Amino acid sequence: MNTVKNDPRPPPVGGVLWSMAGDIRMLLTLPAALTMQVAHPAVGAGVDDHSVFRTDPWGRGERSLTSLQLWVYGGKDAAEEGRRLRQLHKSISGTDAHGRRYHALTPEYYAWVHATGYPVFRYAQHYLGRPFTEAQERQLYAEWLQVGRVLGIHDRDMPQTVEEFWPYYQKVLDNDLEATLVVRELVATNPALPAPDRGLRWLRLLLRLSWPWLCPRFARIRRFLTIGLMPPDARQAIGLEWTDAQERRLRRFGRVVRAVVPVLPERLRFMPIARRARRAARA
After folding, report:
1. Per-residue pLDDT tens for 211-240?
2. Does 198 fall in a domain?
3. Do the Cβ atoms of 151 and 86 come closer than 8 Å?
4. In the list 1, 123, 139, 249, which could disulfide-bond 231, CB 3.0-4.6 Å?
5. What is the rounded CA–CA span in Å between residue 178 and residue 181?
6. What is the pLDDT of residues 134-191, one digit of tens each?
7. What percent of the chain has a predicted confidence (pLDDT) above 70?
8. 125 part of a folded domain
9. Which of 146, 148, 136, 127 minimizes the C-alpha distance to 261?
10. What is the SS3 assignment for 163?
11. What contacts 130, CB < 8 A, 6 or more positions away?
């Protein structure tokens, strides 16, 4: 671990992100945030050209989730993970679908990838938990800015208040987002998605055998949650349809999630890195 004296610290123990980032409900929100990210042509092109999301989607998802957990629960390792990510993105460049050059660390693009988390977490909370109070929303945004510093995002490249965030957000929706190739793949109901290759050997074998039946059903659920937990203004900007019937189904699903998840034991409710950090904080 290569620590630096003035490394930015992760969000505080006991804060809004501390409570939600390791909760299993977070898993349901990530596809919406990812889809908003790749709806930006530069980000979508970077993922299309350089990511292994087609050939190793489960491994990529596991690595991304581990990284996210370290931003919040990693302590001194958080800043090192931020440096690792910036180093990883240094070589990601190319040309987007409109013939424009991009680089992954261009502040405008790098900041947008991070910024999507705030509106998605805020919106999904209406379905999956208790809606945030105004004070909690402000705290969540302040903590998300702190995560941005861990990732190497300069304050000058992100709106510094909630009031400044929404005009910035609306400008990106109005001027940049579109249904990129990667967006269309992420919401497809017939994806060329390989069977999961993680877990116990017998489970991998079972999934491989049943994958032709499971895959289209998984894809429909993924599409439903991706579009449903995406803020409506982003959904509209990208051109993703959402019906009243789907909204009613999502509300019913949310009621079940809100009833079940909070009563689960900690070992089932929180992901491993979060569980270890929470135990260490109590000790």
Report:
1. 899 999 999 999 999 999 999 999 999 999
2. yes
3. yes
4. 123
5. 9
6. 999 999 999 999 999 999 999 999 999 999 999 999 999 999 999 999 999 999 998 8
7. 98
8. yes
9. 127
10. helix
11. 258
Which among 19, 5, 30 has a CA at the least distance from the CA of 226?
30
Domain range enclosing 141: 16-277
**HEC readout, the chain:** CCCCCCCCCCCCCCCHHHHHCCECCHHHHHHHHHHHHHCCHHHHHHHHHHCCCCCCHHHHHHHHHHHHHHHHHCCCHHHHHHHHHHHHHCCCEEECCCCCEEECCCHHHHHHHHHCHHHHHHHHHHHHCCCCCHHHHHHHHHHHHHHHHHCCCCHHHCCCCHHHHHHHHHHHHHHCCCCCHHHHHHCCCCCCCCCCCCCCHHHHHHHHHHHHHHHHHHHHHHHHHHHHCCCHHHHHHHCCCCCHHHHHHHHHHHHHHHHHHHHCCHHHHECHHHHHHHHHHHC
Work out the pLDDT band at 3, boundaries 50, 70, 90: low
Q: How many domains does the chain have?
A: 1
From the list 53, 159, 42, 136, the residue with the least C-alpha distance to 94 is 42
What's the rounded Cα separation, in Å, for the pair 138 and 196? 38
Mean pLDDT of 199-213: 85
> Domain for residue 4, yes or no?
no
- 193: in domain: yes
Total Cβ atoms within 10 A of residue 275: 16
Identify how many contiguous H helices and E strands the chain contains and give both numbers.
Answer: 15, 2
Model pLDDT for residues 37-64, shown as the tens digit of each residue: 999 999 999 999 998 888 888 888 999 9
Could you read off the pLDDT of 92-131 as tens digits, one per residue? 999 999 999 999 999 999 999 999 999 999 999 999 999 9
